[in-house]
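Any chance you'd type out a single protein's sequence alongside its tokenized fold?
>
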Amino acid sequence: MRAVTRLLAATAAIVSAIAMVGQACKPVEVIEPPDAGLKECKPGPVPFCAPAAPNDPGCSSDDPSSKLLAELPRATKYPPGCAINFVGGRDTGGDCVLAGICRCVGGDAGTAVAADGAVIDLSSAVRWTCYP
């Protein structure tokens, strides 16, 4: 009889332990934080500079050398060294696609002499380089 009582007590202890472990492993509802998920991916230009002052050298948004520049506000100049990324939407993996990059280059101070003897003002020799 003692053996049966011990067996029942041991079984009860095991069942209690299993029940406590089951309580500890109870599933919990997970709530995503508000900043989780895809970041904003607004198509269009993302300039990494402020527009140039009216009398400062700069690259014009009216330059027809790249179709990307047509996405910029008209009649705006950007200073030499300015880079502008053009976002094109999302890819199938949900990442933002970089449609192109334009950089305003040039604007060195001083003058140069062309092969024909003409003096070139380098402060106005700024231009866009764009990819693609």
